[in-house]
Design a protein that fits this description.
Blueprint: E1 6-12, H1 20-30, E2 34-46, E3 49-55, H2 58-69, E4 76-79, H3 85-97, E5 103-105, H4 123-130, E6 136-137, H5 141-148, H6 155-168, E7 174-176, E8 185-190, E9 195-200, H7 211-224, H8 229-245, H9 261-267
Parallel strand pairs: 1-2, 1-4, 4-5, 5-6
Antiparallel strand pairs: 2-3, 7-8, 8-9
Bound molecules: adenosine-5'-triphosphate and (4-amino-2-methylpyrimidin-5-yl)methyl dihydrogen phosphate.
GO biological process, one term: thiamine biosynthetic process
EC number: 2.7.1.49, 2.7.4.7
Catalytic activity: 4-amino-5-hydroxymethyl-2-methylpyrimidine + ATP = 4-amino-2-methyl-5-(phosphooxymethyl)pyrimidine + ADP + H(+); 4-amino-2-methyl-5-(phosphooxymethyl)pyrimidine + ATP = 4-amino-2-methyl-5-(diphosphooxymethyl)pyrimidine + ADP
């Protein structure tokens, strides 16, 4: 067997297993990629919301990144919850020092429950320090509005925001996710030359905790395997659509998605 593809997630935790690091590692595993993690914050949360969280000391975040890079170099990296400005600056500095490529940014700002996971003052750092380093960034509509300062209510406005994020702010590519528009689950992909629409049925379900984490982790896993970017995004869309379509009905609030669903479909199995 050749070298196993490896992916790293830099993000916060979710003890209930639906979002953050936990969603990312489950996704990596299901897509046959060896998963590693750097924890930025320990978050006490479940399907009902966030109770509290504690940011990891900067030295510990730095030491975790060094521990990974000194030993097992990942083929692709994603960031999720980065919490505050000095974490963003540190991660940007380490990304440059380790010459990271295949970087997927999920610009996590607010949890589905409405709880803030990024300090208000840190939003400009995310755009200035990290966005130019990304291979692809995956904002949902409120995040794309924050990044661009635009109101986004339709597909044309999603395209305008996507263009600004790449052409002005320096991301290599973007997917503006339309999970918050209410007709279809329509996302806009733009890579500086080509616009594309990723369209799926929109399922009427409350089991959408960690959808953004899972989608960006699936792109990261595919990039780690060497899949071309456009195709990686396509696979990630299929993965998240299947994971939403076949809910596992856990939790009393916004339940987690089903990480078995994608492979069940590939293999014609029924694990859940
Ligand atoms: N109800 C749904 N049915 C089908 N697809 C959906 C649904 N909700 C979201 N999606 C898709 O899931 C992916 C993630 O989108 P979403 O906008 O929910 O991300 P997000 O808000 O960042 O998620 P989160 O904050 O929960 O991590 C997108 O491809 C989106 O189109
Ligand atoms: C650690 C962490 N990262 C990201 C999310 C966003 O996911 P959601 O919007 O589904 O709550 C979360 N809840 N927790």
């Amino acid at each position: 067997m050749g070298q196993v593809p490896r992916a790293l997630t830099i993000a916060g935790t979710d003890p209930s297993g639906g979002a953050g690091i936990h969603a990312d590692l489950k996704t990596f595993q299901e897509l046959c990629v060896y998963g590693m993690s750097v924890i930025t914050a320990v978050v006490s949360q479940n399907t009902l919301g966030v109770k509290t969280f504690l940011d990891m000391p900067l030295e510990l975040i730095e030491s975790q990144m060094d521990a990974v890079y000194e030993d097992i170099r990942p083929n692709a990296v994603k960031t999720g919850m980065l919490s505050q400005s000095d974490v963003i600056r540190l991660v940007a500095q380490k990304m440059k020092a380790y010459n990271v490529d295949n970087y997927v940014m999920d610009p996590v700002m607010v949890a589905k429950s409405g709880d803030a996971l990024l300090a208000e003052t840190a939003k400009k750092e995310l755009v200035n320090e990290l966005l130019p380093l990304t291979t692809i960034v995956t904002p949902n509509l409120p995040e794309a509005e924050e990044i661009t300062g635009r109101t986004i209510q339709n597909v044309q406005q999603m395209k305008d925001a996507a263009k600004q994020i790449v052409d002005e702010f320096g991301a290599t590519a973007v997917v503006v996710k339309g999970g918050h528009l209410d007709d279809e689950a329509r996302d806009i992909y733009y890579d500086g030359s080509v616009f594309d629409e990723l369209v799926a049925s929109r399922y009427d379900t409350k089991h959408t905790h960690g959808t953004g984490c899972t989608f960006s982790a699936a792109i990261t896993a595919e990039l780690a395997k060497g899949t071309p970017l456009r195709q990686a995004v396509e696979t990630a869309k299929t993965y998240i659509t299947e994971a939403i379509k076949h809910p596992i009905h856990l939790g009393r609030g916004h339940g987690p998605v089903n990480h078995w669903a994608y492979r069940n479909r590939q293999e014609g199995l029924s694990r859940a």
